[in-house]
Amino acid sequence: MTHQASSSATPVAVLLPAPVPLLSRNGWAGFLVALIVVGAIAPVLNLWVPEGSAFHMSDYAVALIGKIMCYAICALAMDLIWGYTGILSLGHGLFFALGGYVMGMYLMRQIGRDGNYKSDLPDFMVFLDWKELPWHWALSDSFIATLVLVVLVPALVAFVFGFFAFRSRIKGVYFSIITQALTFAAMLLFFRNETGFGGNNGFTDFKRILDMPLATQSMRMTLFVLTGVTLLGFFLLARALVQSKFGRVLQAVRDAESRVMFSGYSPFGYKLTIWVIYAVMCGVAGALYVPQIGIINPGEMSTAASIEIAVWAAVGGRASLVGPIVGAFLVNGAKSWLTVTAPEFWLYFLGALFIAVTLFMPQGVVGLWTRFVRRNSKKETRA
Known about the structure:
Order of helices and strands: HHHHHHEEEHHHEHHHH
Shape: globular
Strand order of the largest sheet: 1-4
Helix content: 55-70%
Number of strands: 4
Distance between the termini: 67 Å
Number of helices: 13
Largest sheet: 2 strands, antiparallel
Structural class: mainly alpha
Low-confidence stretches: none
């Protein structure tokens, strides 16, 4: 007697992995503490605590920490493109400056007739005997258009460059060199007076934003809080990206791009997408930086500026998200102190720090701290 197989197969249950929470309980606690410090404690210490008090947060500290938080956004973007995708870019200075120049153009228009020449044109244009604004200044008097362009301009430049670079499969040190060359070429272009970007001096002497004075304590603190909230928001975005399927493919591209291709995935779209996100984050950081520091010039695209951002990520710890933020604060805090006490040793210190981290702490400060905590927890378990 012949037995025939059943026409309907029994479905097999497949157990899917449980979704990973965006942050652990301790992570959310740390995030909320950072949010409270930025959004509540710092304003109270600066605006309401008297200057003579030991708890007063000075205007200098507000400006310094605000600047470092802008740098931390760039370091976080660097971690996405380098730590999680394996692409060492040295072009972040370009995208940072593009966002800064877009905001700077708006702030220059906000000066109005309060400039030295009492003209509707920016002072440097009057000095160069320009009669009208160039075409690329057409939307610079609109704050809404400025916010859109802060995102759109770096994204468009990154998309065009990344499309051809990734389609040509440029990678490794060649990609680093070509991004540095792109940034250097842009710096030379912005140095030229006829481009309408202020030449060597760039943009400065800002007075208002949204028709409100910039040089007030309340405005400085508003920009400080906005920068801190933006940094924390980008951190959550980065966390969501790296924990998603998109982020797992990025890490696979970093570890073995050829295997990703053999698995049926095209790395091109993933690399181009994270490249554009990285550029937008740097552009937003530049836009927040300019009104707090009060100047933007082509020096932001220098070779040293781009290399420093890579150092921050390496010192803090790549592929950790928190690490580059910590690295930005540590390195820039040391820079602020050393450039005052021993300015001639700063560059030597930076080079020695990068070498020491590469040789002895490849996972950065955060990696060193993680190993220390795990070692102590193991000792406690054995005891």
